[in-house]
Amino acid sequence: MINANQTPIESRPIVWTIAGSDSGGGAGIQADLASLSDLDCHGCSVITAVTAQSSVAVSLVESVSEKMLLSQLDTLAADLTPAAIKIGLLAEQSQIVCLARWLKQQQQVWQQKGISVAVILDPVMVATCGDALAKAAALDFTPFKGLLALITPNVSELQTLAGKTLDKLEDCISAAKLLSKQLETSVLAKGGDYGPSWCHEQANDLLVCSDVAGISSQHQQQSFWLSSPRIDSKNNHGTGCTLSSAIAAVMAHGFVLNDAVVVAKAYVSAGLLASYQPGCGAGCLARTAWPSDLSLFPYIKQTTAQDSLPSSVSHCRQIAATKQAGFIKIDTPLGLYPVVADIALLEALLKAGAKTIQLRIKDTNEPTLEEQIIKAIALGRDYRARVFINDHWQLAIKHQAYGVHLGQEDLIDSNLSLLREAGIALGLSSHSYFEILLAKQHQPSYMAFGHIFATTTKQMPSLPQGLNKLKRYVSLMKDELPIVAIGGIDAERLQSVKTTGVDDIAMVRALSEADDPAAAFQALNSAWLEDTSYGTQ
Ligand SMILES: Cc1ncc(COP(=O)(O)OP(=O)(O)O)c(N)n1
Ligand SMILES: Cc1nc(C(=O)O)sc1CCOP(=O)(O)O
Ligand SMILES: [Mg+2]
């Protein structure tokens, strides 16, 4: 049965896996294709090597010939253009050189056609049972320099690539950053395997971002710890293959790299929780579809100058829970939420019945800024409405506003403790899974997801999210806190936004550019309220 969030079969993005065949079925091409299909993609395969493998041993590895490798690549390229590529086992150095050369040429062809293809490399060297898969002890991946979106070594692979042991946390961080520079790619250094002492308690992966397309400038060239509780399962054969193919799948659906990593991590956690053992050795992960259980997603912590590891996940979650106590919980719908740039429109919309409204004055040098904020807060009291002040959190505290709306960039210069102590409600913007997880850690009163459709109101670094992404975000956050959709929403699009199950909608131009904003508000508000009951959509 197809659920509401599934992509129709005919519009599934194509993802290639270039990897080895695992006759045991738990890893390699077999795990990749199962994951790709489970995540609503059409998987194509380029087999690099055939392995005679079970869950307990690798008996034989035979690489395919260069002719066969290239023939598979050319045949696929002529017909089945990928949205993303995952590369797994490359059994010998000559395959690395051959594939990198082919990829370099093909990327130029795709670029000329305006097609962008993210390539994820999982530098597989050893099978879970401990037997070697690749011919050389240390493969050299430098031919892939500049061709990858992400490389995903585990600790032992990172050690091999770095040419030294990485017992100390600082060494591991430096090695990941160095690899990122050497290959000009983002790096996900996986701590999931039970390796050095710093990755015992939980699965801590280090994401080093390098020129990631479509993410906030604030996260560019930064590093993040992604921490998940360690799932104590011996059935972990194919974990790395599943993770990297899931990252490719999520990117193929148009999500940015950082999102793909956190969704794939949640997918792997869910797969491990439901894992099974078909043979005598390590069993394999279950395929459990696109994850929407928030507890499976990692806790994110940006690395600091000290590069300290986050304390345990439960400790981080406890801190988040303590913070939650401060921010106001919104228990009646925000409804149709106008965002306005002046007091006259604010008053007209309050008169028309708006119960939530935001004053958004972007010019910090506006001489009447404080005066307008004072007036907006007073009008909110008169009309018993929730008035949110955009950006100017100090003035909001000074004049005791109901709420403040902040973007994630605004958080750098704001003091959330002061806002919490002042009893002020907080709305936070999010533009991706990654930002949602970060925003959630502050336990705001509501979250706004945008921009759903193209907007001219504001220059956005990200692409419009569209309804499919909004649906995924809503299924992740529904019942956690109120979710507002913003960006390009108007009378025509209102019903389609409603079908995503989002709680509330915010609008700028649909009201400010209407001939009669008050009448427009009333018409849009009635359309929004029609057949909508809070929390049960
Ligand atoms: C309801 C709502 N959602 C999103 C925003 C955008 O906030 P932010 O990202 O801080 O951008 P600016 O509005 O400050 O340009 C918002 N204001 N309101
Ligand atoms: C102010 C704002 N913030 C957005 C976000 O995605 O964070 S989109 C947006 C503008 C929304 O304006 P309109 O309704 O005119 O498209
Ligand atoms: Mg802002």
Mean pLDDT: 91
CATH superfamily of the largest domain: Ribokinase
Gross morphology is: elongated
Number of helices: 17
Biggest sheet strand line-up: 3-2-1-4-5-6-7-8-9-10
Give the helix proportion (percent range).
25-40%
List the helices and strands and how they pair.
Blueprint: E1 14-22, H1 28-38, E2 42-53, E3 58-63, H2 66-77, E4 84-87, H3 93-112, E5 118-121, E6 150-151, H4 155-162, H5 169-183, E7 186-189, E8 202-208, E9 223-229, H6 239-252, H7 257-273, E10 299-302, H8 313-324, E11 336-340, H9 343-351, E12 356-359, H10 369-382, E13 386-390, H11 393-398, E14 403-406, H12 416-421, E15 425-430, H13 433-440, E16 446-449, H14 466-477, E17 483-486, H15 491-498, E18 504-507, H16 509-512, H17 517-529
Parallel strand pairs: 1-2, 1-4, 4-5, 5-6, 6-7, 11-12, 11-18, 12-13, 13-14, 14-15, 15-16, 16-17, 17-18
Antiparallel strand pairs: 2-3, 7-8, 8-9, 9-10
Helix pairs in contact: 1-6, 2-3, 4-5, 6-7, 9-10
Bound molecules: the ligand Cc1ncc(COP(=O)(O)OP(=O)(O)O)c(N)n1, the ligand Cc1nc(C(=O)O)sc1CCOP(=O)(O)O and magnesium ion (MG).
Descriptive overview:
The strands form 2 sheets. A 10-stranded mixed beta sheet has the order 3-2-1-4-5-6-7-8-9-10, with helices on both faces. Strands 11-12-13-14-15-16-17-18 form an 8-stranded parallel barrel, surrounded by 5 helices. The chain has helices spanning 28-38, 66-77, 93-112, 155-162, 169-183, 239-252, 257-273, 313-324, 343-351, 369-382, 393-398, 416-421, 433-440, 466-477, 491-498, 509-512, 517-529; strands at 14-22, 42-53, 58-63, 84-87, 118-121, 150-151, 186-189, 202-208, 223-229, 299-302, 336-340, 356-359, 386-390, 403-406, 425-430, 446-449, 483-486, 504-507. 35% of the residues lie in helices and 18% in strands. The chain folds into 2 domains: 13-307, UDP-N-acetylmuramoyl-L-alanine:D-glutamate ligase (3-Layer(aba) Sandwich), CATH 3.40.1190; 325-529, Aldolase class I (TIM Barrel), CATH 3.20.20.70. It contains 17 helices and 18 strands. With 537 residues, the chain is an alpha/beta fold. Helix 2 (66-77) packs parallel to helix 3 and helix 6 (239-252) crosses helix 7 (257-273). Strand 1, helix 1 and strand 2 form a beta-alpha-beta unit. Residues 533-537 have low confidence and may be disordered. Bound molecules: the ligand Cc1ncc(COP(=O)(O)OP(=O)(O)O)c(N)n1, ligand 3NM and magnesium ion (MG).
